[in-house]
From TrEMBL, chain A:
The protein's name in its UniProt record: Aspartyl/glutamyl-tRNA(Asn/Gln) amidotransferase subunit B
Gene name of this polypeptide: gatB
Reaction catalyzed: L-glutamyl-tRNA(Gln) + L-glutamine + ATP + H2O = L-glutaminyl-tRNA(Gln) + L-glutamate + ADP + phosphate + H(+); L-aspartyl-tRNA(Asn) + L-glutamine + ATP + H2O = L-asparaginyl-tRNA(Asn) + L-glutamate + ADP + phosphate + 2 H(+)
GO biological process: glutaminyl-tRNAGln biosynthesis via transamidation; translation
Protein biosynthesis found in the keyword field: yes
Sample GO molecular function, one term: transferase activity
Domain Asn/Gln amidotransferase: 356-501
Enzyme class: ligase
Family (UniProt): Belongs to the GatB/GatE family. GatB subfamily.
Function of the protein: Allows the formation of correctly charged Asn-tRNA(Asn) or Gln-tRNA(Gln) through the transamidation of misacylated Asp-tRNA(Asn) or Glu-tRNA(Gln) in organisms which lack either or both of asparaginyl-tRNA or glutaminyl-tRNA synthetases. The reaction takes place in the presence of glutamine and ATP through an activated phospho-Asp-tRNA(Asn) or phospho-Glu-tRNA(Gln).
From TrEMBL, chain B:
Record-annotated active site: K78, S158, S182
NCBIfam families given in the database record: gatA
Top-level taxon of origin: Bacteria
Keyword set, alphabetical order: ATP-binding, Ligase, Nucleotide-binding, Protein biosynthesis, Transferase
UniProt cross-references to Gene3D superfamilies, sorted A to Z: Amidase signature (AS) domain (3.90.1300.10)
Stated name of the protein: Glutamyl-tRNA(Gln) amidotransferase subunit A
Organism: Ruegeria sp. PrR005
Function summary: Allows the formation of correctly charged Gln-tRNA(Gln) through the transamidation of misacylated Glu-tRNA(Gln) in organisms which lack glutaminyl-tRNA synthetase. The reaction takes place in the presence of glutamine and ATP through an activated gamma-phospho-Glu-tRNA(Gln).
Gene: gatA
UniProt keyword Zinc present: no
Subunit architecture: Heterotrimer of A, B and C subunits.
Length: 503, 495
């Protein structure tokens, strides 16, 4: 296994006024299932529709309406579970979480408290410095998203948009295995990468399709190890939950702030209240969301409108058989099969589309050369214009063509960059462009020899000097290149110069 | 033909097919009867235009020889069913002005079978009640009276409007729903037949939910044959209801042979309650003898967890109701309270629900909220679920031992006076359900058949409980009982 080569990273330590403190973080990530229809109604999930246009009678909780499970969503949850190497529960059940809010028309959210569809799994989170954290997944359950309340459109009224109501979310709950803000960001990045590989969630954090509740507590060094030995939470500090974070940068800042806030309380002799908090990015602080008196009692109970969800092992096996290669495996294979560095393999496998692009380019070609071109030339150029790999003007076939021309000595590396620019901006078949525009490098040793002979004949003094100091051979090479308009094959020129000068 | 509204479904169906009458004539007879029965307060929304339009269409289909099974038969629909474009309020203020844009599966199936909707029928608010007195429209009144006493009696509940309308011949039949006895108790109180089918037989889609794991729709009819005809039209698999069973619907009417020789009828000793009126006990005994005389084997059986059924029901049903009724919040439809300056969303919820829900509904929402709350869940809701499993097992055990049906009284008394229970402990009212709730908790089919009159001339019913999904067999036993009992009494018209 790949992860055997990693060491565990050191937990983040924050120096308080009195002691050092460590952080303990667990996350509940809400990933919107990439489904055209909602979890229990046929309504569309399209983003950006007119307010209240994707709303069925079920979503609006009209009297007498009943939920019917969307099988596609179940499949995506199972797929996600398999992708996180988790156990799949063949029998799960839905529960109602009851609370009043205008964007929750039923007055309850259908979720899976008691019997989630996915049990324990894990995610390997690489930190980029050769260390990696193994974060245990406690469970994944399916639930309905709520709608959106809009309070800032009118001074006297609030508005509700139910388009999002009933959209299927997967709540991916981790154990408190994350030990610092950077690890938290890396964890969510890795989760996002896996989900995108699986195709079960588009990972769009800006649209809120991937968001996290972050549980943060602090403890003295050594306490966490005791927790790990015993799984007894009393070794850890009281946690606070920071709700609804949808930016990796803010997640890090919020954890950092929250940890320092808790340290200050504890070092002053106070106690941290277990509560939910909101992060305010403008002020870079977390604030309590509701007081204890307002704390909800969700009165969970099994939803009597839905029978327990029973799936068959054979169906799970079919889904397992259809899983794509996942990031860790793909990266390992790239390193092994294409001789890539760890770094290059990481960059190329970050997005499934990039990896696919690279593989198409690298197929039957020199992997390292292909990686260089994809990472340095293509990614660099795409980034400059805010494109990404999915709308790259240069197709893998075209980039492969350019690399083939280099490999066959038809063009030099330098000319190849010019060629790439032409293909990028104008399109076309690289080989044809080279042919038509006379960019082909001169490998005809006769022509090179003739040019070299002329130069030698015209510069006898230089010849003598070069014979004493072979480094001066480069001057002859340069002159030949100049005479051939840069198209001479540099290797052929080098060889000829060396031979003619008897070096 | 005269008095068309007094026909049974089967009689009217046969007359229509023989060309002896028309659906329009039947419908007009019912509409006239409804107009003359304001005192019964059975119909709360009348739909004469829809009725006549459907009746005309039915007549055309009858003429063309393309008539489905209930073609042209005028019926009433309980207000709990959502009917497209027609007020559907579950007899609650909170659904004031609510006209759904959809039709419940059951009422749609009835329409597809050619039935003609006359209007919506009174009921207890959200089907919570046993006397019809929790209705926002005021109670329906039982067409029966005690002897020469003019005191108004309850038609029972929650399907009291349906019961009163069928007993008074305002419609040929009506839909009911039954969560703890809401079809069977009112049927018994007015001397008609009512069957609650196996949970999952009828789709719940489009029926305002009370307690989802217990609610079932069923027919309320003038006799057992009609129940068979109408049940067939109402039930069947509905992909829109996940708890609806994907089972074929038999021709129930064809199963009414009246032959119950060799059937084993269980008499549960736990249903012999302390303080039960002698007349009820005697009726039960007579029913037992009738079935024996018809060739059935009578067997004493035990359903040991019966005494826990009522408390179990009054934990589970309110728990589900408290959640099901959360959607009535004044945000999207129905009643919304007028708000004062400075009122926020919490005040809107509180005022709307305080104004929109009656006392009984509020009581059950509060009980349900309590039994689900942190710290009490295990003691109440979870324990009730476990007891429910035991109650269900009681029945499974006797069925496994060869019992085909179980005979019990339908109610612990005849219809009582309206207002009589006004000052009583709510539990007194809940005791009405003592013989019926077990059937809902176990998800079984149960039918109430009128079997006799008490000393004061009020109808009394017997209940037969059957094996799951064997409504046909159950109805046949009910048919045999009906034949033997020969109950033909009708209330004297005073309204």
């Amino acid at each position: 296994m790949l992860d055997l080569t990693f060491e565990t990273p050191k937990p983040k330590t924050i120096a308080g006024a009195k002691h050092d403190w460590e952080l303990v973080i667990g996350m509940e990530v809400h990933a919107q299932v990439a489904s055209q229809a909602k979890l229990f109604s046929g309504a569309s999930t399209a983003f950006g529709a007119e307010p209240n246009s994707n709303v069925s009678f079920v979503d609006a909780a009209m009297p007498g309406m009943l939920p019917v499970i969307n099988e596609f969503c179940v499949e995506q949850a199972v797929r996600t579970g398999l992708g996180l190497k988790a156990e799949i529960n063949l029998k799960s059940a839905f529960d109602r979480k009851n609370y009043f809010y205008p964007d929750l028309p039923q007055g309850y959210q259908i979720s899976q408290l008691y019997q989630p569809i996915v049990g324990e799994g894990e995610v390997l989170v690489e930190m980029g410095d050769g260390t990696a954290r193994r974060v245990r997944i406690e469970r994944i359950h399916m639930e309905q998203d709520a709608g959106k309340s809009i309070h800032d459109m009118d001074p006297n009224m609030s508005f509700v948009d139910l388009n999002r109501t009933g959209v299927c979310l997967m709540e991916i709950v981790s154990r408190p295995d994350i030990r610092g803000p950077e690890e938290a960001a890396a964890y969510i990045a890795k989760l996002r990468q896996i989900l995108r590989y699986l195709g079960t969630c588009d990972g769009n954090m800006q649209n809120g399709n991937l968001r996290a509740d972050v549980n943060v507590s602090i403890c003295r060094p050594g306490a966490y190890e005791k927790y790990q030995e015993t799984q007894d939470f009393s070794h850890l500090g009281t946690r606070c939950e920071i709700k609804n974070m949808n930016s990796m940068r803010f997640i890090q800042a919020a954890i950092e702030y929250e940890a320092r806030r808790q340290i200050a309380i504890v070092e002053a002799g106070g106690k941290v209240d277990q509560e939910t908090r909101l992060y305010d990015p403008d002020k870079n602080e977390t604030r309590s969301m509701r007081s204890k008196e307002e704390a909800h009692d969700y009165r969970y109970f099994p939803d009597p409108d839905l029978l327990p969800l029973e799936i068959e092992q054979a169906w799970v096996d079919d889904i397992a058989a259809s899983l794509p290669e996942l990031p860790d495996d793909k990266k390992a294979r790239f390193i092994k099969d294409f001789g890539l560095t760890d770094y290059d393999a990481s960059v190329l496998t970050a997005e499934v589309e990039s990896a696919a692009y690279f593989e198409e380019v690298a197929k039957g070609r020199n992997g390292k050369l292909a990686a260089n071109w994809v990472i340095n030339e293509l990614f660099g150029r795409l980034k400059k214009e805010d494109h990404d790999i999915t709308d790259s003007p240069v197709s893998p076939v075209q980039l492969g063509g350019i690399i083939d021309l280099i490999a066959s000595d038809a063009i030099s590396g330098k000319i190849a960059k010019d060629l790439f620019e032409i293909v990028y901006t104008e399109g076309g078949d690289p080989a044809e462009i080279v042919e038509k525009r006379g960019m082909k490098q001169v490998t005809d040793t006769g022509a090179i020899e003739a040019a070299l002979d002329e130069i030698i004949a015209a510069n006898p003094a230089q010849v003598e000097k070069a014979k004493v100091n072979p480094k001066l051979a480069g001057w002859f090479v340069g002159q030949v290149m100049k005479a051939t308009g840069g198209k001479a094959n540099p290797k052929a020129v080098n060889d000829l110069v060396a031979a003619k000068l008897g070096l | 033909m005269s008095d068309l509204n007094t026909l049974t479904l089967a009689q009217a169906r046969d007359a229509l097919r023989k060309g002896e009458t028309t659906s329009v004539a039947l419908t007009e007879a019912c509409l006239a009867a409804i107009e003359g029965a304001g005192a019964l307060n059975a119909f709360v929304h009348k739909t004469p235009e829809i009725a006549l339009e459907r009746a005309k269409a039915a007549d055309a289909r009858l003429q063309s020889g393309d008539a489905p099974k209930m073609c042209g038969l005028p019926i009433g629909i309980k207000d709990l069913f959502c009917t497209k474009g027609v007020p559907s309020q579950a007899a609650s203020r909170i659904l004031e002005g609510f006209k759904p844009e959809y039709e419940s599966t059951v009422s749609q199936q009835l329409a597809d079978a050619g039935a003609v909707m006359l209007g919506k029928l009174n009921m207890d608010e959200f089907a919570m009640g046993s006397s019809n007195e929790t209705s926002c429209y005021g109670n329906a009144v039982n067409p029966w009276r005690r002897g020469n006493d003019d005191a108004a009696l309850t038609p029972g509940g929650s399907s009291g409007g349906s019961a009163a309308a069928v007993a008074a011949d305002l419609c040929l039949a009506a839909t009911g729903t039954d969560t703890g006895g809401s079809i069977r108790q009112p049927a018994a109180f007015v001397g008609i037949t009512g069957i609650k089918p196996t949970y999952g037989r009828c789709s719940r889609w489009g029926i305002v939910a009370f307690a989802s794991s217990l609610d079932q729709a069923g027919p309320m009819t003038k006799d057992v044959r009609d129940a068979a005809i109408m049940l067939e039209a109402m039930c069947g698999h509905d992909p829109k209801d996940s708890t609806s069973a994907d089972l074929a619907v038999p021709d129930f009417e064809a199963m009414l042979t009246g032959d119950i020789r060799g059937k084993v009828i269980g008499i549960p000793r736990e249903y012999r309650m302390d303080g039960m009126p002698e007349e009820i006990e005697a009726l039960w005994q007579q029913g037992t003898e009738m079935l024996r005389a018809a060739g059935a084997e009578i067997r004493d059986i035990s359903l040991p967890h019966t005494k826990y059924a009522l408390p179990t029901y009054y934990v589970i049903a309110p728990a589900e109701a408290s959640s099901n009724l959360a959607r009535y919040d004044g945000v999207r439809y129905g009643h919304r309270a007028k708000l004062a300056q400075g009122d926020g969303i919490t005040e809107m919820y509180e005022k709307t629900r305080a104004e929109g829900f009656g006392h009984e509904v509020q009581r059950r929402v509060m009980v349900g909220t309590y039994v689900l709350s942190a710290g009490f869940y295990d003691a109440y809701y979870n324990r009730a679920r476990k007891v429910r499993t035991l109650i269900k097992k009681d029945f499974e055990d006797v069925f496994a031992a060869g019992v085909d049906a179980i005979l019990t009284p339908a109610t612990p008394s005849a219809a009582f006076g309206l207002g009589e229970m006004a000052d009583a402990d709510p539990v007194q009212m809940y005791l009405n359900d003592v013989f019926t709730v077990t059937v809902n908790l176990a998800g079984l089919p149960g039918v109430s058949v009128p079997a006799g009159l008490d000393k004061q001339g009020l109808p009394l019913g017997l209940q037969l409980i059957g094996r799951p999904w064997e409504e046909g067999d159950l109805l046949n036993t009910a048919y045999a009982l009906e034949q033997a009992a020969g109950f033909l009494a009708k209330p004297g018209k005073w309204w």
